[in-house]
């Protein structure tokens, strides 16, 4: 997060009980307020305009939410603090750069985006607290995973692959048909790499439920195993619920004590430290001191490497933008089998009926970003590796209302039929 934002933010009201959150985390910290903050969409149509915009962003320390390219323009979405809104309007007008306000007051969107709750109560009928009508805290998610493991031992194995920086368990769910002793090709799915992208763990847990608890989906387990990690960054995820809705990174201590955390999706060990990363610990794209410096990325990569001979497809769930992104992401470079990857992605996306997704090279559609998990997975031999940027296209951005959870999940799930059919044909 830019330094200016850290200095500007004061107490907030987006948790149901900030004092409870402080007690839970054992620290004296006030929740961040985004009252008056806006999200602007800036369109530039030339290299000169793009250079001027970058200068303005750097001069006023404005946080970039998303950058994407079209055939004729580049669109940048910015989080703009109240204190710099007037001067930015003047600067953009002087530069003849067009802009629009997509979110007028971030606090209002945050406040209305999720049911106000800290911890859901146990549903005695279902045996767990999970549903997909609101965004759940980590305790609900982990409680659900444990419930599944104990209720469906012939189908679910809950694997603790390590601990986070703040000593939370890192769980992977293996979903399989225990009656078969044959080693099957597998699909890996992860969510929650970036803390604020709440729709990502929601979709990952929805997929788990569909595979485990819905008999109509049993065919997906016949020839394929599934490894699903719904929350790769549990510390950041909890922090985004308790203190800062827009927190992105891990929560490790850095060389700057006032700026914590590393971007886990810049911390994987392929082309680490390249374009789209930062050496500044206060940056949202801080790469860390070395590849796999974070216990979360280290544990995840070790587990995947141990299963690399069987994992044939890697899906990492993010938001937002509605795009299926194909490596390489470190620069606009295409792998030799790009046409195979593009064909499969287009086939999967064709199953979506509610949301329209772009498909293409990650760096070409968005921007270069080195050290990403999808590039790393591709680099160790997982042929099909994709990042899915989920809904929406900017009306809410990272703050997708909870009312959208089920529509997004239900729209996405049929694509797994396409992926599973392809993986089932691959040899282990």
Automatic annotation (TrEMBL):
Endpoints of the signal sequence: 1-21
Alphabetic keyword roster: Carboxypeptidase, Disulfide bond, Hydrolase, Metal-binding, Metalloprotease, Protease, Signal, Zinc
Q: Which PROSITE patterns match?
A: CARBOXYPEPT_ZN_1, PEPTIDASE_M14
**SMART domains in the record:** Zn_pept
Q: Which residues form the Peptidase M14 domain?
A: 134-423
Task: Supply one GO molecular-function term.
Answer: metallocarboxypeptidase activity
Q: Which SUPFAM superfamilies match?
A: Protease propeptides/inhibitors (SSF54897), Zn-dependent exopeptidases (SSF53187)
Q: Which family does it belong to?
A: Belongs to the peptidase M14 family.
Q: What is this protein called?
A: Peptidase M14 domain-containing protein
Write the lineage as a comma-separated list: Eukaryota, Metazoa, Ecdysozoa, Arthropoda, Crustacea
């Amino acid at each position: 997060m830019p330094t200016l934002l850290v200095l500007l933010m004061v107490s907030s009201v987006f948790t149901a009980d900030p004092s409870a959150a402080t007690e839970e985390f054992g620290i004296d910290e006030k929740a961040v307020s985004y009252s008056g903050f806006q999200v602007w969409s800036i369109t530039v149509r030339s290299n000169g305009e793009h250079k001027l915009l970058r200068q303005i962003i750097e001069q006023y320390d404005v946080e970039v939410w998303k950058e994407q390219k079209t055939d004729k323009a580049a669109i940048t979405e910015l989080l703009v603090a109240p204190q710099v809104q007037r001067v930015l309007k003047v600067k953009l007008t002087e530069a003849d750069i067009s802009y629009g306000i997509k979110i007028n007051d971030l606090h209002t969107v945050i406040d209305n985006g999720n049911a106000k709750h800290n911890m859901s109560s146990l549903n005695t009928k279902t045996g767990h607290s999970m549903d997909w009508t609101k965004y759940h805290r980590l305790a609900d998610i982990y409680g659900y995973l444990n419930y599944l493991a104990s209720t469906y031992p012939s189908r679910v194995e809950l694997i603790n692959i390590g601990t986070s920086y703040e000593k939370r368990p890192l769980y992977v769910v293996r979903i399989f048909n225990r009656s078969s002793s044959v080693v099957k090709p597998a699909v890996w799915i992860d969510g929650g790499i970036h803390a604020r992208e709440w729709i990502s763990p929601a979709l990952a847990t929805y997929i788990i439920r569909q595979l485990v608890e819905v008999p109509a989906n049993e065919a997906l387990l016949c020839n394929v195993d599934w490894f699903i990690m719904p929350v790769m960054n549990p510390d950041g995820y909890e922090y985004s619920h308790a203190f800062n809705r827009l927190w992105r990174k891990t929560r490790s201590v850095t060389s700057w004590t006032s700026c914590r955390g590393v971007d886990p999706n810049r911390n994987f060990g392929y082309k680490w430290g390249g374009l789209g990363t930062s050496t500044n610990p206060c940056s949202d794209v801080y790469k860390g001191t070395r590849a796999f410096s974070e216990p979360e990325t280290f544990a995840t990569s070790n587990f995947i490497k141990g299963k690399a001979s069987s994992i044939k497809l890697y899906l990492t769930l993010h938001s937002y933008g509605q795009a299926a992104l194909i490596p390489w992401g470190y620069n606009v470079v295409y792998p030799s089998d790009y046409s195979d990857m593009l064909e499969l992605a287009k086939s999967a996306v064709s199953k979506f009926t509610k949301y329209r997704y772009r498909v293409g090279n990650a760096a070409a559609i968005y921007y270069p970003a080195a050290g990403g998990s999808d590039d790393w997975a591709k680099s160790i031999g997982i042929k099909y590796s994709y990042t899915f940027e989920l809904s929406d296209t900017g009306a809410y951005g990272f703050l997708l209302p909870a009312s959208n959870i089920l529509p997004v999940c239900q729209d996405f799930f049929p694509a797994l039929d396409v992926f599973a059919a392809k993986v089932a044909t691959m040899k282990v």
